[in-house]
Amino acid sequence: MSKDYQVRDINLAEEGQQKIEWVSGWMPVLNSLYKKFSSENNFKNKKVALCIHLEAKTAYLALTIQKLGAEVWITGSNPLSTKDEIAAALAKQGVHVFAKHAAAPEEYHSFIKSIVENNMDVIVDDGGDVCEFLQENPRYGVNLKGICEETTTGVNRLKELASTGKLLYPAIAVNDAKSKHLFDNRYGTGQSTWTAITHLTNLNVAGKTVVVAGYGWVGRGVAARAHGMGAEVIVTEIDPWKALEARMDGFRVMPMMKAAGEGDFFITTTGLSGVITTAHIQKMRSGAMLSNAGHFDFEIGGGIINIAGGLGHPVDIMDMSFSVQLGCINYFLSSEKQAPAVYRVPPEIDELVTREKLKVERIEIDS
Ligand code: NAI
């Protein structure tokens, strides 16, 4: 067992291990990529760090990377979503875990330093916090072949750095793979947000009015699932095309100031601040419920509803997202170091993951 870890309670390991075993049976695409890459030997003696919501599916990705021969460091990308039993189980299996549920910001930042200070070959980031640390501390990035960025917010931060010529590392926008955002952001967040809300509140959704702020991939999924459960859905947007799309999908569209007086549930899906303000809250009816399904807690305060208050995306959805991650890590490890820029997921990886998914779902298509 590795002593190189910081977790809340190592005695929780068995409970975490059981949860990891459950997800391992539902990630056939990842398992098939594992088989493919195990003969290629690219992971042997390499160092990979992950900063993603630390729960069972992420743990299985970490263990798969370890099984391929790499040494793995990990922290959770949002301390509120870190599951202590999963962190303990990983520590027991020799992964270098630095993560505690609800760690204070200073401790979270020290965890980020701990996972990268041994000069990683590849980093998996979720939201851009590790990248930001390495931009400020480039001495820890000298061996880095690349960053694989999991989510929209992180990709936006990377693109901003690249556009001003400040990005120091090659990065792949994993989020932008079709096999990722079309399914994970939309169906994954759509289902898991409502699983968390109904579980936490024990309230009926049918007949309620749900206000969804933002009609991007996440917003579309959250709105579609609310509609499917019988709610009336109102969408707020700033993008005229998305607003029109929401209307043509059958939803009411209006400014938040107007929607504020109508909603029972409010869900932000923008990744930006100032979407729901004090003025909006003052207009809301007593008992209205606010949740954030975007990346940052500054949308309305509080962690991400589907992860902090639930189990995160369904396992079989994360099977695809993490397969894209594994493919991109393998790609960086097997290629020459590239110039700093934000790269697309190689199309062959994107297609491989979706074709594997079709296979496990026993769906045949025409050519
Ligand atoms: P997106 O860029 O497709 O959609 C964001 C939408 O918000 C855009 O249509 C934009 O016009 C709209 N918007 C921006 N400001 C607004 C405002 N003030 N009022 C109303 N609408 C506004 O991005 P995507 O992929 O939907 O991701 C959204 C956020 O969710 C990101 O922060 C992403 O990182 C996060 N995310 C969260 C997941 C989760 O598990 N909770 C999973 C995947 C992504």
What descriptors fit this protein?
367 residues; alpha/beta; seven-stranded parallel sheet; 13% strand; binds 1,4-dihydronicotinamide adenine dinucleotide
> What is the terminal separation in angstroms?
49 Å
Rg from alpha-carbon coordinates: 20 Å
Structural class, from secondary structure content? alpha/beta
Output the helix-strand order: HHEHEHEHEHEHEHEHEHEHEHEHHEH
- Which molecules are bound in this entry? 1,4-dihydronicotinamide adenine dinucleotide
Major sheet characteristics:
7 strands, parallel
Instruction: Please state the overall shape, judged from the principal axes of the Cα atoms.
Output: globular
Largest sheet: spatial strand order: 3-2-1-4-5-6-12
In helices, the fraction of residues equals 40-55%
Outline:
The protein is an alpha/beta fold.
What does the secondary structure layout of this molecule look like, with pairings?
Layout: H1 13-24, H2 28-38, E1 47-51, H3 56-67, E2 71-75, H4 84-92, E3 96-97, H5 105-116, E4 122-125, H6 129-136, E5 146-149, H7 152-163, E6 170-173, H8 178-201, E7 209-213, H9 217-228, E8 232-236, H10 240-248, E9 252-253, H11 256-259, E10 265-268, H12 278-283, E11 289-292, H13 305-308, H14 315-334, E12 341-343, H15 347-360
Bound molecules: 1,4-dihydronicotinamide adenine dinucleotide.
1,4-dihydronicotinamide adenine dinucleotide is lined by residues 151-153, 181, 185, 189, 213-219, 236-239, 242, 269-272, 275, 293-295, 304, 306-307.
What can you see in these coordinates?
By secondary structure, the protein is an alpha/beta fold. Helices cover 46% and strands 13% of the residues. The strands form two sheets. It has a seven-stranded parallel sheet with strand order 3-2-1-4-5-6-12, sandwiched between helices. Strands 9-8-7-10-11 form a five-stranded parallel sheet, with helices on one face. Helix 3 links the parallel strand 1 and strand 2 (71-75). Helix 2 packs across helix 15 and helix 3 runs parallel beside helix 14. It is globular and about 55 Å long. The mean pLDDT is 96. Residues 151-153, 181, 185, 189, 213-219, 236-239, 242, 269-272, 275, 293-295, 304, 306-307 line the site of 1,4-dihydronicotinamide adenine dinucleotide.
